[in-house]
Write a structure and sequence with these properties.
- This protein has 382 residues and is an alpha+beta fold.
- It has three domains: 109 residues, Acyl-CoA dehydrogenase/oxidase, N-terminal domain (Butyryl-Coa Dehydrogenase, subunit A, domain 1); 109 residues, Butyryl-CoA Dehydrogenase, subunit A, domain 2, CATH 2.40.110; 147 residues, Butyryl-CoA Dehydrogenase, subunit A, domain 3 (Up-down Bundle).
- It is 53% helix and 15% strand.
- A hairpin with a 2-residue loop joins strand 9 and strand 10.
- The model has no long low-confidence stretch (mean pLDDT 97).
- The structure holds flavin-adenine dinucleotide.
């Protein structure tokens, strides 16, 4: 990746996202976090500005952005509020399986009306019995004439209660394990589709998370994406695409932590001088800055690799894992720099720690990313 500069178009997208983040998201971040409020008016505005459906090509009504551009936007949004960002980018996660596995006819029929006005979508893979072992999902899709009948329960589904469309992974034949999984598009109004109650979460409290139950929900065979056994591969390829923006989200959280901590360190005095003049604080800030710079570079490198047409499994795992681990460390140090005030909800840094934690867990926990990275690494030595 020889050229680290953003194009004029990238910069104008960054400016748009920064202005929206500062003007519309940041002023409501603390209140939404405290109340666990889902600020639909902000999500609607994000849609109107073209900051949703970022990965959907313009021919289907999306923003048609490169992955690098998506990452630049996501970092800006997450700097203001990671929870709102999670709900905004959940559409990219839910729509990617349609882009990867859908026929041209399905893309036109599903994506064009969806992207034509404000809608939310949910990606439904995780189940109560486990998320990491995605090949072992228990939700069943029973073929019945020209339909499938879905039964089972998904959990931790972002935007679950608000989505008008679900991409759902279910097993057509459990004996085939991951090769028996299929992917489906399920419209909200389908009888038997039952979103559950909102989870009470530690962070990302402006986003919404729930179970989604399928109680003998009948969907036409035409709503299947790809062939019957393609579901697992579609899910994994989707996550290869969407892990990189999680690296950007984590970078945005960490950059916010530095911005708050550096400004505070110049104002707060101990022993007759600003704490920024104590070398111990300077070293913390320096370590934080190195982690953020490295996170951004890994994220951009991953986006660049995928934008060139490569799958980017290794790069996206590295970016997501490193940036989210770094964001946890950087947010923790920001709290330390704030001292006792850092522990108080009146100040913005404790939220950053709670928000950073999720980035280590969702879209594949970091233990799973390390398994992926080691597997890819060892291949080169076989
Ligand atoms: C707020 C939130 C939003 C989410 N949004 C969505 C969504 O929109 N759609 C969706 O489908 N899912 C979503 N998820 C689910 C998320 O992707 C899963 O929580 C995650 O993949 C981990 O699965 P699990 O929670 O079942 O943990 P488990 O799979 O039970 O794992 C528990 C622990 O064991 C570790 N572990 C598991 N297997 C191994 C192994 N082989 N070696 C080493 N360690 C291992 C894990 O890393 C983890 O630390 C969301 C989760 C949260 C919390």
């Amino acid at each position: 990746m020889p050229d680290f500069s953003l194009t004029e178009e990238d910069r104008s997208l960054q400016d748009l996202a920064r202005k929206f983040a500062k003007g519309d998201m940041a002023p409501h971040a603390a209140e939404c976090d405290r109340a666990g409020r889902f600020p639909e008016e902000i999500y609607r505005k994000a849609f109107e500005l073209g900051l949703m459906n970022l990965n959907v090509p313009t021919e289907y009504g999306g923003s048609g952005l490169t992955l690098l551009q998506q990452c630049v936007i996501v970092e800006e949004l997450a700097h203001a509020c990671a929870g709102m960002t999670t709900s905004i980018i959940a559409n990219c996660l839910a729509l990617e399986p349609i882009l990867l596995g859908g026929s041209e006819e399905q893309k036109r029929a599903i994506l064009t009306p969806f992207c034509g006005s404000y809608h939310l979508a949910s990606f439904c893979l995780t189940e109560p019995a486990g998320g990491s072992d995605a090949g072992a999902i228990a939700t069943r899709a029973r073929p019945d004439g020209d339909s499938y009948v879905l039964s089972g329960e998904k959990c931790f589904i972002t935007n679950g209660p608000h989505a008008s469309l679900y991409t759902v992974f279910a097993s057509v034949d459990p004996a085939l394990k991951h090769r028996g999984i299929a992917a489906f598009v399920v419209p909200r109004g389908t009888p038997g589709v039952v979103p559950g109650r909102e989870e009470e979460k530690m962070g990302h409290r402006a986003s919404s998370t729930s179970t989604v139950r399928f109680e003998e929900a009948r969907i036409p065979k035409g709503n299947r994406l790809g062939a019957e056994g393609d579901g697992f591969s579609i899910a994994m390829r989707t996550l290869d695409q969407t892990r990189t923006p999680i690296g950007a989200l984590a970078t945005g959280i960490a950059q916010a932590a530095i911005d708050h901590a550096a400004a505070y360190s110049l104002k707060r005095q101990t022993f007759g001088k600003p704490i920024a003049e104590h070398q111990a604080i300077q070293f913390k800030l320096a370590d934080m800055a190195m982690k953020v710079a490295a996170s951004r570079l890994l994220t951009w490198q991953s986006a660049w690799t995928i934008d060139r047409g490569e799958r980017g499994t290794l790069e996206s795992s590295m970016a997501k894992c490193f940036a989210s681990d770094s964001a946890m460390r950087v947010a923790d140090e920001a709290i330390q720099i704030f001292g006792g005030y850092g522990y108080m909800k009146d100040y913005p840094v404790e939220k950053l720690l709670r928000d950073a934690k999720l980035a280590q867990i969702y879209e594949g926990a970091n233990e799973i990313q390390r398994i992926v990275i080691a597997k890819q690494l060892l291949k080169a030595y076989e």
